[in-house]
Known about the structure:
alpha+beta, four-stranded mixed β-sheet, two-stranded antiparallel sheet
Amino acid sequence: MxxxxxxxxxxxxIKIKLKxxxxxxxxxxxxxxxxxGIASSSGKNINTIFDVEYExxxxxxxxxxxxxxxxxxxxxxxxxxxxxxxxxxxxxVKTYLSPDEEEDTWQxxxxxxxxxxxxxxxxxxxxxxxx
Length: 131
C-alpha cells in the first residue's frame, strides 16, 4: 500500500470514529442530565479514547492491529453546535498527523480556543495521541 493511500485510509477512519464517538458521548451526557432538546448553560465534558486500526496479512488471513489510540479530553461549550466542534477536532487531528513543512508555527484551536496536542510518551505498548 502506498503512503498516500495508507494516510488517506487512516484519516478517513479517524473522521468516522471521531464523529461516532463524540456524538455518542454528547448524546449520553444530555440523556443523563435530562436536558434532551433543551439548551444547556454549562459545558459538556468529553473524555474518550478510541483505537485507530490497520489490517495486516494476506487476503485469507487478515488481522486487525491497533496502530495508535486517540484520547480527547475537552469541555464542549453550548455556544457552538456539535457538528462544528467535531469538524474542528477533525481538522486539528488531520493537520497534526500530516504536518506541512511550511506551517511550522501552526497552533490547533477548537471553538476559538487554543488546544494542546501531544503524543503521550509513557503510553506503552500502544502510542497515545492526546488532545
